[in-house]
């Protein structure tokens, strides 16, 4: 059974992602070490004791749609209410609307643990928090007053309505229409698909944020507006009024995260009587909807990255526990009587250490991204610009590397279990199924790579990435300066991987500068992976160099060395793929017919 | 919908795996080109038109156990009968028992296609063929006369009963007992788990091959005997007699291959009345059961490798079709109006070409392994020894590389489909689920790696692997000699990868020679992968160099170049992991607690 890794999250926040430094510099207000520990301990307890025990039933029962109503798995509505009553929905929200105004770093660590308990459960609340962010940043005072307090408390949930059948990665072609009613409100008509928690029985009302197009809007992404469309209209006194003209037409039969409803939502077909059209309120300005949505999409991408970390952590815990218990064969050097636990076999050790290293690397990258977000909020001027850029640069890597790690680690987890891994009751298979959506939603990892290469590398004319690499060089230098033989060849390995990253970065900059878009994009995914591996090595080293006084320094150094000597070496091949791969890729297009 | 790749299988057999050369040398009797094409065209038609359309219903319905009877999916029993009536069960069996005595090469190509249609369906018949092989090689005349004709015709199916709850990879600790009855027969008592098609409604009788231990047997693997235990006893006239004391206690709820029953079998609990004990007949000698089983396990491993190839091919076809049809965004250089098909995006091209290259590499390796099996049968003396060794060397690589490719390619296939890939109705998710068992059963890929490094590399004092690498060097030299610029950097890349393989092989030889078992085993899996990648590059090049007169040489050269310049470069990191990975792995064991 999953046990939230509270110690590891606190350590990583403090000593790897930069929480302790930020607190020491007074960047995070009155946040104390005790409060950090208290919050994460309780978030972890909730994940371990409340969420995790209901994960399997959620997977097995899935959701049921009957006459437009979605029934979530047994005991899930009560689980949600307990979660909201614990105040977990309001961690980062503004105190103006009942929020606690805490740093994103705490939030991502808590999200990791809730998703570790059950990704299908945690995805819903996460989307509400995204909706709160968008509404806080772009909603009118009236909208914020009406909706935010109840969304922050968790009394109502939110949903994000972007995708349409022909508009997924490319939102510019969406067709959902919004018509002005003349009273400041709008009527929406259209169909949205893949809407996570678009309908459910957790809360009485659901606040949909919906992208749609006005009749006179310009074509493409510059003609999209954002609307707030509640399931039930809200009266002046805050009470629920009439049913709005939006409903759930169907739910998907999915590979994983069965407990979460994935809905097709129909807007404006008039089925509830009266004039057709779902009544909506504009959020932000007309035709600026995509920019508003991006406010929350960056955080949503980081949140999906957390799902990758969470699945990887859960899969690793499960595999280690099984490998200690299951005996089979006799490993070389095994001194015990009878068969050895399979954790004694070198190949199993290799799988488990790979799982550990990828999990901790992904965790460190995502937490470091949250740190950059917090620092951007805590600073001003040039400094804020720096941290905003850092968060922008890290977001696609955090999303893609962590979600790929989720899939890879969950697959290794099944393998460690042998035949038992293929049996659903064991639970390893569920993680393998759940993990698979994370590299796809909130922008596929291929889209993240395009974003990284074409939008993030050019930040500050390339100075942002250059400075970042220089910082990472500092970690490698510190490993070298430590002269600790337990690091083995780590310093040299890290230095070599950084040289690969520099060469690939420079090559991409040149290719883009010369307008060789195809060449650059052909190498975008290998580059993104390369960056993630370098960060994994560097952050594991930063953790190993830290003195947390918890007696685990030797372990961290050993894991860092394992990663440096076994995983990071891939960077050479990845750099080669970035720099030399495009020509053969173009030449081979004909193979695809 | 899956379409059996008949042309590609025929090409690969002839020009890559060695079928044409073997036929030209007269090694395969009267086999003609026309017959090869006729057989594989019809096997492919059956896969495309009969099996594939029933794959989805098999996945959705799964199997149902009621009062010891397993109901397979709708129309599957009729599908099986049509398959058996087509003579497909008898391809490689001896003409003495109604078989066609055809080469294994044809069989693996046909198996690839049947598994491409539905892996859950094809796994059952495959096991029968394995049972036929074991019985042919080790059964008494009486047993062979009684059982083989009906097993060869497909009137009865077979099953393999090895695994017990505490005896999976390590069969030495199995507990199933066999007691001598004094009349030459035995009574069996015990429980077997994970028995594929242990019970079903395809045939009236099921012939179980069961490993069990005699009362006076030595401990460990040298005390295991093989027994034939029919579901129904067979009368002297061949008619079905009394129900034997074996039954299916439960079926597993699995991640994938839902249509195939995975049974827990109980032997000898006396539920059908009479004296308890399932009546069995010894196959081969007492206490030599594991050796008998290994006869068919090698072929079973190759058959599982074919499942990896099959899933990879099916996933690739599906992804290419979707990528051509789905439009989204505008790829750089896209000249059409509106959105481009996603196949125009470089990142999608990279995914699809990677899928193509891994699929074709895995296919070539498995077919080459079947070629070695056929040559071992067709030759004598030193030559037979050489080919037996070659088949032995290739088997673990064929099994592991192909099944890993199946998982990786199916995962990429889901990714290419974006959100649709996560929806079960699309079918990409089923392949991702089905694929996951293949790296596990018939010896996990970790077990294959141990086999490769500790048993196969030492063959002929290392001369077998050395000669093989020299042959592969010949392919690289031919690429260089071709002077064809379309190969790009292929020659140099192949040469470098072969140098990596040589270095890793030599290092492992030294480590084993010096008794450093842990060091060697720590690198076994990376070594196995390294070998598979080198073979992929070499066999793609062999195919590209061949002149098949089918106008596809340029395509094959382009795919070979893509693989050489994008995939094969991983060999450097893998070699490094073999040679330098063990120390850090040992040092980090403490991390696992």
TrEMBL record, chains A, B:
Superkingdom is Bacteria
**InterPro entries xref list:** Acyl-CoA_dh-like_C_dom, Acyl-CoA_DH_CS, Acyl-CoA_Oxase/DH_mid-dom, Acyl-CoA_Oxase/DH_mid-dom_sf, AcylCo_DH-like_C, AcylCo_DH/oxidase_C, AcylCoA_DH/ox_N, AcylCoA_DH/ox_N_sf
Q: Which Gene3D superfamilies match?
A: Acyl-CoA dehydrogenase/oxidase, N-terminal domain, Butyryl-CoA Dehydrogenase, subunit A, domain 2, Butyryl-CoA Dehydrogenase, subunit A, domain 3
Substrates-to-products reaction catalysed:
3-(methylsulfanyl)propanoyl-CoA + oxidized [electron-transfer flavoprotein] + H(+) = 3-(methylsulfanyl)acryloyl-CoA + reduced [electron-transfer flavoprotein]
What Enzyme Commission number(s) does the record list for this chain? 1.3.99.41
Q: Name one Pfam family in it.
A: Acyl-CoA_dh_M
What does the function comment of this entry state?
A: Involved in the assimilation of dimethylsulphoniopropionate (DMSP), an important compound in the fixation of carbon in marine phytoplankton, by mediating the conversion of 3-(methylthio)propanoyl-CoA (MMPA-CoA) to 3-(methylthio)acryloyl-CoA (MTA-CoA).
What protein family does this chain belong to? Belongs to the acyl-CoA dehydrogenase family.
Q: What is this protein called?
A: 3-methylmercaptopropionyl-CoA dehydrogenase
């Amino acid at each position: 059974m999953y046990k939230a890794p509270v110690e590891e999250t606190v350590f990583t926040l403090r000593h790897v992602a930069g929480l302790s430094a930020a607190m020491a510099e007074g960047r995070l207000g009155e946040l104390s070490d005790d409060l950090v520990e208290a919050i994460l301990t309780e978030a972890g307890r909730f994940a371990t004791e409340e969420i995790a025990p209901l994960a399997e039933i959620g997977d097995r029962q899935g959701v049921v749609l009957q006459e437009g109503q979605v029934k979530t798995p047994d005991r899930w509505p009560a689980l949600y209410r307990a979660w909201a009553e614990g105040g977990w929905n309001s961690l980062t929200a503004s105190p103006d609307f009942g929020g606690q105004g805490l740093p994103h770093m705490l939030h991502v660590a808590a999200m990791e643990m809730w998703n570790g308990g059950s990704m299908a459960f945690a995805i819903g609340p996460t989307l509400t928090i995204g909706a709160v962010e968008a509404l806080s940043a772009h909603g009118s005072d009236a909208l914020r007053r009406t909706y935010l307090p109840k969304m922050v408390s968790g009394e109502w949930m939110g949903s994000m309505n972007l995708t349409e059948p022909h508009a997924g990665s490319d939102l510019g072609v969406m067709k959902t229409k919004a018509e002005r009613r003349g009273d400041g409100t709008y009527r929406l008509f259209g169909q949205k698909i893949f809407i996570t928690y678009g309908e459910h029985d957790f809360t009485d009302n659901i606040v949909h944020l919906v992208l749609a197009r006005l009749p006179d809007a310009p074509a493409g992404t510059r003609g999209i507006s954002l609307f707030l469309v509640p399931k039930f209209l809200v009266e002046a006194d805050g009470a629920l009024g009439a049913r709005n003209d939006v409903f759930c037409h169907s739910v998907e039969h999915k590979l994983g995260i069965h407990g979460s409803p994935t809905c097709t939502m129909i807007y404006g077909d008039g089925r509830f009587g009266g004039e057709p059209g779902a009544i909506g309120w504009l959020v932000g300005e007309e035709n600026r909807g995509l920019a508003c949505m991006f406010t929350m999409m960056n955080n949503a991408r980081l949140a999906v990255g957390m799902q990758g970390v969470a699945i990887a952590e859960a899969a690793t815990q499960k595999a280690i526990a099984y490998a200690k218990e299951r005996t089979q064969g006799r490993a070389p050097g095994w001194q015990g009587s009878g068969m050895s636990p399979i954790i004694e076999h070198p190949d199993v050790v290799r799988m488990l250490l790979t799982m550990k290293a990828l999990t901790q690397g992904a965790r460190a990258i995502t937490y470091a991204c949250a740190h950059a977000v917090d620092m951007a909020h805590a600073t001003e001027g040039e400094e804020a610009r720096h941290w905003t850029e850092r968060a922008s640069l890290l977001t696609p890597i955090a999303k893609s590397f962590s979600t790929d790690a989720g899939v890879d680690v969950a697959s290794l987890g099944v393998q460690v279990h042998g035949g038992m891994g293929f049996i659903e009751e064991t639970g390893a298979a569920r993680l393998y199924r759940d993990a698979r959506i994370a590299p796809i939603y909130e922008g596929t990892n291929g889209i993240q790579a395009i974003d990284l290469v074409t939008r993030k590398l050019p930040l500050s004319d390339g100075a942002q990435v250059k400075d970042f690499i220089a910082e990472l060089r500092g970690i490698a230098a510190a490993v070298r300066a430590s002269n600790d033989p337990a690091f083995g060849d780590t310093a040299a390995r890290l230095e070599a991987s950084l040289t690969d990253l520099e060469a690939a970065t420079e090559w991409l900059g040149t290719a883009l500068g010369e307008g060789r878009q195809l060449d650059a994009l052909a190498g975008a995914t290998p580059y993104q992976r390369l960056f993630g591996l370098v960060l994994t090595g560097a952050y594991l080293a930063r953790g190993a160099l830290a003195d947390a006084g918890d007696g685990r320094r030797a372990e961290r150094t050993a894991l860092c060395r394992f990663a440096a000597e076994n995983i990071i070496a891939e960077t050479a091949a990845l750099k080669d793929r970035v720099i030399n791969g495009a020509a053969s890729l173009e030449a081979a297009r004909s193979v695809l017919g």
